[in-house]
Amino acid sequence: MKKKYIVTLTKEERRMLQDMLSRGKAAARKLLHARILLKADATRGSPGWNDETIAEGLEVGRATVERVRKEFVEDGLEAALERRKPLRQYRRTLDGDGEAHLVALACQKPPEGRGRWTLRLLADRMVQLEYVDQISYQTVRRTLKKTNLSLG
To answer: What is the spatial distance between Cα 62 and Cα 58, in angstroms, rounded to a whole number?
Structure first.
């Protein structure tokens, strides 16, 4: 099977990776990726091992070898060595205004027949008062913890 992502290191890249490995002063993941790139290097006079051989020799999954090879070809040496930042972005349920409403609500007297507010009760009341469409009691807990507000 012909590889789509062929690793060809420059002399400078190869020397940098070899220096990194000889020093051994980097994160284990970074050193492993450096070894993968050196073994996958298809430049003349380099090992040019296939993915299965690299995976077996370095005791990693073949998918890891393929991913490192792909990152190197598409994004460069640094991307293949460094951990990628997560791409996910979470939308906040409560902005500053919503947090203020929650804190104010938690400071009020609890509903009739209740000795104190519970997290679920606060979450339900925030929805009832239409401050938010929906909110989990865990979001209420995290927000109150962040603001150092105790329900007790």
So the answer is: 10
CB neighbour class for 135 (10 Å; exposed up to 12, middle 13-18, buried from 19): buried
Structure tokens at 143: 């927000």
d(CA 50, CA 144): 54
Do 131 and 101 contact (CB within 8 A), yes or no?
A: yes
> Could you tell me which residue, 3 or 105, shows the higher pLDDT?
105
Percent share of the chain, pLDDT over 70: 97
For 79, the 3-state DSSP assignment is helix
Which of 1, 3, 4, 63 is CA-nearest to residue 36? 63
The angle, 0 to 180 degrees and rounded to 10, between the axes of the packed helices 137-146 and 119-128 is 100
| DSSP assignment string, 3-19 | -SS-----HHHHHHHHH
pTM value is 0.61
Phi, psi (degrees; rounded to nearest 5) at 69: -60, -45
Q: Give the integer Cα–Cα distance in Å for 52 and 125.
A: 58
Residue 121: predicted pLDDT: 96
End-to-end CA separation in angstroms for the chain: 65
